[in-house]
Amino acid sequence: RKIGQSLHMSTSGYVSDEEYSRCLTPREERKQVLNEDRFPVMDQRNSWRRKLLGPIRYVKRKVLPSRSRQPGTLILVRCGQSDWNQNYTFTGWADPDLASEGVRECEHAARLLLEGGYEPDVI
């Protein structure tokens, strides 16, 4: 840039990307990131409420035993044979009834799951 040349501000308010990147020292950047992690943007509660509930939540986590939940098992079974499959018809979002062969396939899959020790909660 020449001496006496006027400065033109970009839409960000900084003359150049270099000026923007140097607006915080590395220590200030680190401090800002750590503060952002402590208080998520989605936390819409008042600051006094956060300050009050934070220590309570900390003590609760340390003192009270936590219940460990075992993760469930998700079992996906593809549909059996339908009349539309036999005719090579595209089903899209439709839910055609199963053909007799499709019903037998589903019953067989259910028997295999029960033999394997799985007892489904939701079907």
Automatic annotation (TrEMBL):
GO molecular function: phosphoglycerate mutase activity
Isomerase found in the keyword field: yes
Source superkingdom: Eukaryota
GO terms of biological process kind: glycolytic process
InterPro entries on file: His_Pase_superF_clade-1 (IPR013078), His_PPase_superfam (IPR029033), Phosphogly_mut1 (IPR005952)
EC number assigned by the record: 5.4.2.11
Protein's name according to its UniProt entry: phosphoglycerate mutase (2,3-diphosphoglycerate-dependent)
Organism: Helicotheca tamesis
